[in-house]
Specification:
This protein is α/β, with parallel strands linked by helices and 376 residues long. The chain has 16 helices and 11 strands. The chain has an 11-stranded mixed sheet with strand order 1-8-7-6-5-4-3-2-9-10-11. Bound molecules: iron/sulfur cluster (2 copies). The site of one iron/sulfur cluster has 15 residues, from helix 10 and helix 15.
Length: 376
Amino acid sequence: MINCSRLLRVGETEREVKKHRNKAAKDVPKHLIRYSKVYSPMVVWNITRECNLSCPVCHLGSAPTADDGELSTEEATDLIDQMATMGVPLITVYGGEPLMRRDFLDLASYAHEKGLRMIFSTNATLITKKTAKKIKNSGITYVGIDLDGLAQQSGNGFDVLEGLKGSMLAIRRLREVGVGCGVRITIGEFNSAMLPEITAAIEKAGIRRFAVCQVLEGRPWREIGEERRKMMDFLIDYAANSPEMEVVTEHVYADGVYILERLKRRDPRRARRISNLLRMQGGCPAGRKLINIDHLGYLHPCIYWKECTIGNVRDTGLSELWTHGNTILEKLRNRREHLKGKCGKCSYSEMCGGCRSRAERYLGDCFRSDPACYFH
Ligand code: SF4
Ligand code: SF4
């Protein structure tokens, strides 16, 4: 993800990065991990495929029931032990819906006891007052509310405003117990013109962080790129004028390059400092700074790249897979040697690298150009 707000507040971010860059994983604040020198990967863990909602479109491939082969409590506990030994800096739990797994908050408490940081993404429907307290007691300090679930339940597609309305009770309950939360929204041709209204509603709800995900399929790439440029122009101006808000975008690392190019014309010195931050972040983290474990224990370079499997934590230790996984991990870590086409020639490949899973899905080769790149 590209954190537009922290890039634009470059002076403050630089100071924080300098202070924490060489610290051990557990001592680096979670928003700075992407710039740190921590070698162990951030882990994105799909803890179950079970979800209590049946949405027409689910980016997590959820199902109404858990899979028989999901990791047992003992296996999940063992995995947490392995992550603690490796010094994993952050575990982000996804589902399905994580709260559908009865042992989820016990596993979160165990991870916390082991000194690990865990956050999770939820559809917000299961956060009762009691659950909010349990979340707090488990040591989880941040919950990401994916508005797609409740938005789609309204029967009006990805209606962000409906999703937000439906999530307010959960947001209030989390706030009451002192757990931070932000929202994830989906933007497409159906609502991109509503961004001012949507951001105003998010602000009014007292939320201080939102992540934007654009629908990146179903239309010609040129149209998607045009829409993204307009969306980014809005978000950059919005973030620059909203110091209290944290604005992040997902899945398109060319957004960092776009911010940089926009600033280069107006403030070259500031642009140079932003390019340093982007270089430290290193663009797409799949298999380099991040790894995904699915509900069956299979390891993938990232949550959206399930076609690529590195192994299974039931057969081989996580550390072993991460260190000696297979040639794809080695290639991702030496990405510049393997990139082809526009990404291969791009002078920004070190700080972006394009989306490798998208290249594989749409072009059949993960090292070809990212079809969603809108940067000329
Ligand atoms: S060409 Fe590739 S590396 Fe360059 S900005 Fe676009 S996606 Fe990133
Ligand atoms: S492969 Fe694509 S979706 Fe996965 S981390 Fe990289 S940019 Fe994100």
